[in-house]
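can u pls check wat happens w/ methionine sulfoxide
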Amino acid sequence: MASSKQEIYRSLLPQIEALVQDEDDLVATMANVSSVLHESFGFWWTGFYRVIEKELVLGPFQGPIACTRIPYGKGVCGTAWQRNETIIVGNVHLFEGHIACSSASNSEIVVPVIRGDKVIAVLDIDSREYDTFDETDRHYLEQIAQLLAQ
Ligand code: SME
């Protein structure tokens, strides 16, 4: 029987905790975290953008090539950074200002990685299906983002 989304996240959390504990370099950890999530769920695109000065700069990811820089407040990623909160988009074509790095993406979740009171990066996941992400994804991906912010 196929595992539920919740079961998959639950089994990944200890793995991700170990990845975070074993490595000090944030970029290296982001690389493995994006791989673990991508491989486990079969998402279309899974990766990080890091806050560098006034924009988001592409970090470690899995999937097709993507836009390299996103300004503050732009797209789903820049908006999640600005609002300091997770954004779930069931249909990206209806999100005003959505940045289409790939025309195959139809839904998206962006989770800020917050250290102290500052967003230091965002975790962005894209799906080819509509309405892929829900409160279960938010719950577990926010826990993963918190681990990365330690
Ligand atoms: N769709 C994002 C841009 C990043 S790509 O999806 C990888 C956005 O609107 O911010």
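Residues 5-149 form a domain with the Beta-Lactamase fold (CATH 3.30.450.40).
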